[in-house]
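User: Design a sequence. Structure:
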């Protein structure tokens, strides 16, 4: 928004000042909207063809410098990549249309000051404004007028750009809500999307409820999700969750997963698309004590290769109690996992650690994602290379297994002593 309190003009608006002469202020107004460019009023600027040519060049140059996507239309979204360097997301990582429902940062009572691209009327929510911003490659921030009854502000969505090297100012404003279209990482900080999938007929729900109460484990990540499996392939409802108030009162609605196992869980993670907004995705078993602060120390300066990377946590092979994948690694899985489940490259899931073995082989052997061994990730009784067993006294990122709430909490308290 501009600093004045009046209604904002649509951007970009050029006063057509040529050699000190200023015609009517709206003579070169053009609006970039979903229908394209409209509202051109060139003839009121000048009466000669020469002046029209000058104005056309001047307005075109202005639009390019300002960063307005004047000739861009929504159907071109898939053909354009981001043009600045405020994110390391490569072009193929741009969220697809089905992923655009999940917004980035939202700050209430805040106005973001930067260059306006254009305005959209009749947007009835902050989330709707964010969704509009997500559709345009040049949009770096948005502001929505939440105040009621103010012409030119109420239900108006202001889409905003950011020139290279420019700084966006945040100003308190009780009449607006502002945000960014996608989540980005703070410098020097590895953002984590963590999830768990409780199994039917176990104590997993109780363990996750305890973890949430203590704000530990996946609930200490930047974002978390719980994906629930149905008790059998014939079930039509997630009855195991509905019967447990400890889970139903906090688990996300609609996160019901079929009982075909971990492949369906990963498929749901991919279809939700929430991993796209974080550098790392971490799958954690509910009965594993997980310490995100320690994982961030491991990942803080770890470079992500172009092909993506995932972490092997045991000398004998990947143990599925904790799985750490970079954003590009999971994107590679999202695009190519069918190669691992069908066709000539199909993998056989016949190992004792079925999930870990499948993910390990699918990523490294079929999809050619980089494999990095990091034994400090896990202390697991099923892994011989674990140095401290499950005593929670070592410096590992996760300890497994703890199937009762008592032993789980004891492990958290013991391990928490070593967290700086």
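Assistant: Done.
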């Amino acid at each position: 928004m501009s600093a004045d309190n009046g209604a904002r003009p649509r951007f970009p608006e050029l006063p057509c000042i040529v050699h000190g002469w200023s015609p009517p202020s709206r003579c070169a107004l053009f609006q970039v909207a979903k229908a394209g460019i409209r509202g051109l009023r060139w003839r009121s600027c000048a009466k000669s063809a020469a002046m029209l040519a000058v104005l056309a060049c001047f307005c075109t140059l202005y639009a390019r410098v300002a960063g307005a996507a004047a000739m861009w239309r929504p159907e071109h979204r898939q053909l354009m990549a981001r043009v600045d360097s405020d994110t390391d997301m490569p072009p193929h990582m741009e969220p697809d249309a089905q992923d655009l429902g999940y917004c980035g940062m939202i700050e209430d009572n805040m106005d973001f000051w930067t260059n306006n691209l254009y305005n959209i009327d009749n947007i009835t929510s902050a989330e709707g404004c964010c969704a509009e911003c997500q559709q345009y490659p040049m949009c770096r921030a948005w502001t929505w007028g939440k105040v009621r009854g103010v012409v030119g502000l109420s239900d108006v969505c202001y889409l905003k750009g950011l020139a290279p090297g420019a700084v966006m100012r945040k100003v308190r404003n009780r009449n607006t809500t502002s945000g960014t279209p996608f989540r980005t990482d703070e410098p020097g900080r590895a953002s984590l999307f963590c999830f768990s999938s409780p199994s039917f007929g176990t104590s997993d729900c109780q363990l996750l409820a305890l973890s949430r109460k203590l704000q530990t484990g996946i609930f200490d990540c930047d974002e978390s999700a719980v994906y629930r499996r149905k008790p059998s392939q014939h079930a039509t409802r997630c009855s195991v969750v509905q019967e447990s108030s400890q889970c139903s009162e906090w688990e996300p609605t609609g996160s019901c997963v079929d009982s075909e196992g971990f492949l369906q869980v990963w498929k749901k993670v991919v279809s939700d698309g929430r991993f796209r907004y974080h550098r790392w995705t971490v799958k954690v078993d509910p009965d594993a004590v997980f310490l995100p602060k320690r994982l961030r120390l491991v990942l803080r300066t770890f470079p992500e290769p172009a092909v993506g990377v995932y972490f092997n946590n045991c000398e004998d092979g990947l143990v599925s109690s904790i799985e750490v994948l970079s954003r590009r690694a999971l994107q590679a899985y999202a695009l190519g996992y069918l190669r691992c489940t069908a066709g000539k490259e199909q993998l056989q899931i016949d190992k004792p650690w079925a999930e870990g073995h499948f993910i390990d082989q699918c990523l490294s052997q079929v999809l050619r994602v980089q494999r990095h061994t990091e034994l400090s990730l896990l202390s697991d009784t099923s892994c011989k290379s674990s140095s401290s067993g499950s005593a929670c006294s070592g410096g590992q990122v996760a300890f497994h297994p703890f199937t009762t709430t008592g032993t789980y909490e004891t492990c958290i308290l013991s391990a928490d002593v070593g967290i700086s």
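The mean pLDDT is 70. The radius of gyration is 26 Å.
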